[in-house]
Every structure is written in structure tokens, then in C-alpha cells.
Amino acid sequence: MLSRLTRSKALAVCALPVVGLIAATVVAPLPFAVAQPGMTANVLGEDQGTPVITISGAPTRETDGQLRMTTIEATSPDTRVWLGDVLDSWWRTDKAVMPRDAVYPSGDTVKEIEQHNEAQMRESQNAASEAALTYLGLEDKDIEVDLELADVGGPSAGLLFSLGIIDKLEGDGSGGDLTGGRNIAGTGTIEADGSVGAVGGVALKTQAARRDGATVFLVPSAECADAKSELPKGLRLIPVRTLKGTVQSLTALAKGTGSVPSC
User: Fold this and answer.
1) What separation in angstroms does the CA of 192 have from each of 32, 76, 123, 159?
2) Between residues 45 and 4, which one has the greater pLDDT?
3) What is the C-alpha separation between 91 and 34, in angstroms, rounded?
4) What would the pLDDT profile of 41-89 be if each residue is shown by its tens digit?
5) Does the pLDDT at position 207 exceed 80?
6) Cα dihedral 172/178/182/188 (nearest 10)
7) Residue 86 near residue 59 (C-beta atoms within 8 A)
């Protein structure tokens, strides 16, 4: 058994690394990124004066309503995040603390990350065009789709791009708008076969959507729970798995007939 004096010295010695660790945490940057609701953009409209969707080789229709792609904004990979930033954001519903490696590839430079995100966006746009034209049975026609959206990277706008193309070419199939005149937002990747994938950050994206006037939010089915966790008042969630199913849900909502799934 240690004497009282020896025990006190031992505790003091053990406490030194702990105190040092706490001090280092306070004064050293942490491997986290802080995210918040980002910008949204109506893919049926213009971005910086340029139409987001331009279609040639087929007649297009005038559209009403909005289809808003949503984003999150995260601290850049070269921004230092301190303990105070983490503590300030931890309990807030309009911010999220995430491991830096979950947001940005480890070891990449800012320029490499930007190039990666741009490549993902281009791949997403190509898949969105292919999925929409295949859904409409126009994949063998000489139709060109140009998608322009500045300062946005990643694949999460794919679903909204596909829906925008369909709305401009066909609408709800009976002369009406796919949106039913509503401000509809959402997120989700898209594959050429029309399958919709999860994206992350949906709780923050729902806040961005409601902030910009959306009343309906399309969310990948696998992320319903995350979307409901901080769901803004006045925003309706519609879970989606495929492009075809999403069009059916929007058509039912616009016409007020049939069932519309919910989370």
C-alpha cells in the first residue's frame, strides 16, 4: 500500500499527462469540420443569369413551381477548427460537427478536393441526363442536355437534375407541371438506371430548403430518420428510392389523387 504522501505524488504524476492533453486540445486545432445549411438553387430557373438546364433537339415546355437542389456548407479543409468551435456547434440544430475525413478526402490539397468534387458533379449530371431520357423513352433520340450550376460540387443534385429535365420535356404527362406549382426541394444521387442514393447532411439540407421557401422535401428513403430529426415546421418529407417512384409521388401530389408516401 502506498503511503499518503507517495499516493499524492503518484496522482500528481498521473494528472500531468491529462492536464497536458486538455491544454493541447484547447490550443491545438481538431480534426473536425463544422457544417451548416448551404445554398439552394432552382434547377428549373437560372443560376447567375444562365439557365441551369438547357435542352436542344426536342421541344421544351414552360414550367411553374420550383425544384430546388440543396447543399451544406462546411469549413474548408485548410481551416483550423478549435475546441471552442466544436463546443459552440455541438448543441446547435443549425450546425453539425463531423470528422474532417468524412467531409474531405484525407491528405488531399484544397485544389485536389475541388477537382474531385467537380468530377463528381459532372458524372452526376451525365447520369441525371441519361436517367431522365431513359425514363421518357428518349434515350435513342438526338437530344442534348446541358446542365450549368456554378460553385457547387459533388453528386447530391442528381435526382433534382433528372426531375428538372423531365419537367421541362414532359411535365406530369398530361400538360401539367411535375411540381404542381409548388416549391419542392430535395437531395439524392442518381444512377443511369434511375436508382436514388443517400447523400448525408439531410438534416441541414431540410433547413436550407425551408429557409428558401420549400414546402416539400424529397429525401432518399434510407435517410428518413435523419431528415425527421430536425425537420423544420411546414416541410413535408417524401421518401424516394427510384426516379420513376419519385415522379409518381410528385404526380400524385400535384393532382391530389393516389397515395403519396411519407417518412
Assistant:
1) 34, 31, 10, 11
2) 45
3) 12
4) 999 999 999 999 999 999 999 999 999 999 998 776 666 665 666 566 5
5) yes
6) 150
7) no
| SS3 per residue for the chain | CCCHHHHHHHHHHHHHHHHHHHHHHHHCCECEEEEEEEEEEECCCEECCEECEEEECCCCCCCCCEEEEEEEEECCCCCCECHHHHHHHHCCCCCEEEEHHHHCCCCCCHHHHHHHHHHHHHHHHHHHHHHHHHHHCCCCCCCEEEECCCCCCCCCCHHHHHHHHHHHHCCCCCCCCCCCCCEEEECCEECCCCEEECCCCHHHHHHHHHHCCCCEEEEEHHHHHHHHHCCCCCCEEEEECEHHHHHHHHHHHHHCCCCCCCC
pLDDT digits (tens, 9 = 90+) for 97-148: 777 676 676 657 778 877 888 888 899 999 999 999 999 999 999 999 999 9
The answer to whether residue 243 scores a pLDDT higher than 80 is yes
Look at strands 32-42 and 96-99 and give their pairing: antiparallel
> For 156-180, what is the mean pLDDT?
95
- Per CATH, is 37-73+120-255 categorized as 3.30.230.10? yes
Q: Positive or negative, the Cα torsion across 140, 141, 146, 152?
A: negative
- Select from 12, 32, 10 the least CA-distant residue to 77: 32
Residue spans of the domains in the chain: they are 1-28, 37-73+120-255
